[in-house]
Amino acid sequence: MSPRKYLVLAGVALFGAVGDSMLSRGMKLTGNISPQHLSNIVLVVLNPWVALGIFFLLGFFASYMMALSWADLTYVLPATSLGYVLLALIAKFVLHEQVTLTRWLGILLISAGVGFVTRGPSLTRHREPAECSEPEEETVSFGAKP
Amino acid sequence: MRPIYAWTAIAAIVLASTTGDVLLARAMKQVGDVGALWRRTGLLTVAGRILRNPSFLLGVLAMTLAFYSLLFGLSWGDVSLIAPASASLTFVANAIAAKIFLHERVDRRRWMAALFVAAGVALLAA
After folding, report:
1. Is A44 close to B71, i.e. CB distance below 8 A?
2. What letter does residue B15 receive in the DSSP assignment?
3. How far is CA A72 from the centre of its chain?
4. How many CB atoms are located within 10 Å of the residue B99 CB?
C-alpha cells in the first residue's frame, strides 16, 4: 500500500462524512416525504444542501471506486469507516451536539476495527491460492507491462 | 411514525447497498487498478471501460435504490435509528456477501474488523 492509496482511502472517509452531514441537514429542512406525495422525492434534490451533499457523495463514489479497483471490499469498508468518527466530530464541533460516553465508546470500537483490518493484506490473490505472504505490492497485474 | 416503516426501510437499504457494493467491487476488479490504467491509457479509456461494465451499471442501480430507500427512511423515521442501523448491518452483510460472491479471504482479522465497526456504528446512535 503506497501513501497515495492511503490518501484515496482518506478521501473515501472524508467525502462520505461531509456529504452525509449535508444531506442530513437538507432533509431536515425539507421535512417529511409521505407515500402520498412521491413526486417530492424527486424535487428534494433542488434543495441546495441536498445538492451539495450529492456533489460530495460523487467525490466519495469516485474515490471508493478507485479503492475497490485495487483492494478487497472487506478491506475498504472497515478501513474507511473512520468517516463515522469524523461524522461524530463534525456533530460535536460544528453542529455542537453533545457526544456522550457511549458515542466515544463507539468511536473507540470503530478505530479498533480500522486498526485490525489495515494491519492485514489489502487484496485476496485468487491466482495464487498458495500465497501466504502479504500481497502488498502492486496487486494482480492486469496485462502487465513487459 | 410506525416502527415497521423504519425497519422496512432499514431492510431495503441493507439489501440494496450490499448488492450494490458486491457488484461494484466485482466490476472494479474486472476493470483493474484504476490508477495504473489511467497512467497507461488515459482517463477516457478508463471511464469508458468502467461505464461499459454490466456489473458496474447494475451496481449503480442497486446503489440508487439504496439511496432512495435511505431518503424515504430519513423522512419517515429517526435519523439516529435508520442511518446507523442500516450502516451497521450493511458491514456484517457485506462481509458475508464478499466471502460468498467475491471469494474474498475473510479471515478472523476481517471478521473482527467488520464486527467492531458494526458495533461501534451502532453505539454512535445510542
Report:
1. yes
2. H
3. 14
4. 17
C-alpha cell at A35: 407515500
Residue B33: its chain A contacts at CB < 8 A? 69-70, 138-139, 142
Q: How confident is the model at residue A89 (pLDDT cuts 50, 70, 90)?
A: confident
Q: In which residue are the cell numbers 451496481 written? A: B59
Q: Is the dihedral of CA B91, B96, B98, B104 positive or negative?
A: positive
Strands (E), A53-137: none
Quote the Cα angle for A4-A65-B123, to 5°.
90
* pLDDT interval class at B79 (50, 70, 90): confident
Q: A79: helix, coil or strand?
A: helix
- Give the Cβ contact number of residue B66 at 10 Å: 22
Using the Cα atoms of residue A37, residue A41, residue A45 and residue A48 in order, give the sign of their dihedral.
Answer: positive
Residue type, B40: R
CB half-sphere exposure, A17, CA atoms < 13 A: 19
| Grid cell of A52 as nine digits | 451539495
Q: Is A95 on the interface with B (CB under 8 A)?
A: no
Residue whose C-alpha cell reads 467475491 in the numeric block: B102
How many CA atoms within 13 Å lie on the side-chain side of A81?
Answer: 36
A-contacting residues of B 23-52, CB under 8 Å?
Answer: 24-25, 28-29, 31-37, 40, 50
